[in-house]
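Allow me, if you will, to draw on your knowledge of protein folds for a short while. The matter concerns a single protein, recorded as an amino acid sequence and a row of C-alpha cells. Kindly check, if you would, that the fold set down in the C-alpha cells agrees with what the sequence suggests. You will find the record immediately after this paragraph.
***
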Amino acid sequence: MVKNKEVRRYISLGVIITAIVGVAAYFFKLPAFIAVVIEGVLLFLLWFVDMQGRYRHMEKMAQEIDLILHGRAAGMLSEYEEGDISILRNEIAKMTVMLRQQAEQLGDEKHKLADALADISHQIRTPLTSLNLMLEALKKEDDEEKKSRIIFDMRRQLERIDGLVVSLLKLAKMDAGTIKLQKSQVKLGELVKAALQPVEIMLELKGITTRIDVRGSFIGDKEWSSEALANILKNCMEHTADGGTITVSGYENAVHTELVIEDSGSGIDADDIQHIFERFYKGKNNKSDSYGIGLALARSIIAGQNGTVKAENVKNTDGKVCGARFIIRFYKGII
C-alpha cells in the first residue's frame, strides 16, 4: 500500500499539516482543542480538493472510453502512473487495446471469409454451368454415342465438384484445428512411396521419370503428410512436359528433416512465387481446371506439424530457369 502514490501523498501531507499545527500551537499558545479543529479543517480541505481531482480524472476517463467505443480515439496509453485511479486507467487502456486488436482481427477474418465464399461460389458455379448446358444438350441428342460422350463429360464435372468440396472440407478442418495430427515416427522412404501412389498412373502416361534419394525420418502424421507431398508432386507433374523428370531427395540432421522436390518443367513465374501457397490462387501457368487449393492445403498440413515449405526456381549454369523446387522442413524443436 505504501507504494501507492496517493497513499504516500496523504501520509506526507498529514504529517506536514500535523507538524505545522503543532509548531503553531507551541509558539502561539493555542489551546489543544483549537489546534485539533484547525488540523481537521485543513485535512478536510485537502480531502475535498483531492476528491475533486479524482472526479475530474474519472470524468475525463469516461469521455476517453466513449471516444474509443465510437472509434474516434486510439487509446489511453500516455498517462501511466501509480495510484488507484491511474491503475484502473491503465487496466482499461490495456483492455481497450486488446478489444481493438480483436475487432480488427474479426474484421480481417470477415473480409477473408467473404473472399473465400466468393471464390468457392465461382469455383462451383463453373462446373454447374457446364452441367446445365450438357443436360440441355443431352435432352436434344438422339445419337447414342454422343449421349455417352456427354454423360462421360458430366461425370467428370461432378468429380470436379466432389474433389473441390472434399479439398475445401479438409482445408477448413485444418484451419479450425479440428484435425488431430498424429505424432509418430515417419520414415521418408515410406512417405514418398505413399505420396507417389495417387499420381503413379499419370506419371507413367506422361513418361515422367521419378528419381528418389531419401533417408531419415521425422515425427509427424504419415497420412496427412503424404497428402501434402502428393499435392506438391501433382503440381510438379502438371507443370512438367512429357518425358521430363521429378527428383525427390531428403535427409535428416540434428535440427530438422528436409525434403526437396524438383521438376524439369517451366518453373514458377516471378509474380507467382510469393502467392503460390495462397488458397484459390492461380498462377499464369496453371491449368484452367485447377482449383488453387492443393498447395494451400499442403502448406497448412506441413505448418501443423512444426514445418515449413517454400517454392523457388531451379536455374542452370547460364542462370536460365529449368524447373521448380519445393523445400519442406520438419523441425525437431519449436521455430
About this structure: Residues 120-176 form one domain. The radius of gyration is 35 Å. The mean pLDDT is 79. The chain has three domains: 5-101, 120-176, 184-331.
